[in-house]
Amino acid sequence: MDQELNFTYVTLDWYVDINKYRYVFFFIMFALYSLIICTNSTIVYIIWIHKNLHEPMYIFIAALLLNSVLYSTTIYPKLLIDFLSEKQVTTYSACLFQFFMFYTLGGSEFFLLAAMAYDRYVAICKPLQYHIIMRKTTVSIFLIIAWLVPACHIAVQAIGSANIKLCDFNIKGIFCNNAVYTLLCERSRLITIFGVVALLDLAVLPMLFIVFTYTKIFIVSYQRCKEIQKKAAETCLPHLLVLISASVFFVYDVSIARVETNFPKAVRIVMTLQVVLYHPIVNPFIYGLKMKKISKHLKRCFPRPQSILELKVNA
């Protein structure tokens, strides 16, 4: 294969097992991608058009769901094309770009969850100072950091990997994630060290901050009245659910590429699909159903058939 930059092709070798059912998988994944776009975009639009939702917590939720749309768009269009193609190939430069976007947006999710945790901490533990601390400027800075810091970290690894000779051209995966490292003849010390730094900065430290923050919130709310306890539970539970699910699949994604396993291809495919499928679909339902203000607007936009019938009878 041609080894010149931007003309090196790599093959995704996992499609062999599902070649017979490619059209079935295509329609299933297309339906799921459409569901992801529609559900996430609906809640982002609702937050955008209703001024009473222009609060830091809801702005962070909108940013998280927008991040989910971008995250999915990094994976699904190429995935759908591959289902319909005879050969699943991509250029190495395109593979590295997908790697960059996948981990940048993945890191941004943890940063956004950390920003939400801080917002809830200030709202519950320092309510009198909330509007002073959580100003528009503060929210804007948090959003810029959430997208810029992961991009800078992952860019170093992507650029570093682009200049290393390849000894393999078959990626054991459905897209270009950590598996790109298995293509390299040798991993440079820069990539290894910066990989550990990125892991700490983009995942471990935000997770520790979130756990510490919510622990503090529950301790403070436990010492106060039941109304504060209820408020803490209602607003913090959705964030915790999202954090737990994100953490589980993050650990899987990191470990599966670094540990040689004898898992059947089908098992690896299903588990890897969970990484790109679960969050983008579940997140809008968690926030849409658990956050009262958002749920209220959703019910107005999509009234139940019984409610429509009542309106007609009353008319």
Short description:
With 315 residues, the protein is mainly alpha-helical. It has one domain (9-287): Rhopdopsin 7-helix transmembrane proteins (Up-down Bundle), CATH 1.20.1070.
Descriptors:
315 residues, disordered C terminus, 10 helices, Rhopdopsin 7-helix transmembrane proteins, 3% strand, three-stranded mixed β-sheet, mainly alpha
- Structural class, by secondary structure, is mainly alpha
Number of domains: 1
- The level 1 CATH classification is Mainly Alpha
Percent strand equals: under 5%
The profile of the biggest β sheet is: 3 strands, mixed
pLDDT under 50 segments (min length 5)?
1-6, 307-313
Q: What is the total tally of β strands?
A: 3
How are helices and strands ordered from N to C? EHHEHHHEHHHHH
| CATH architectural name | Up-down Bundle
List the total number of helices: 10
Shape: globular
Going across the major beta sheet, what is the strand order?
A: 2-1-3
The gyration radius over C-alpha positions equals 22 Å
CATH topology: Rhopdopsin 7-helix transmembrane proteins
Helix content: over 70%
Overall pLDDT = 80
Tell me the name of the CATH homologous superfamily.
Answer: Rhodopsin 7-helix transmembrane proteins
The span between the termini is: 72 Å
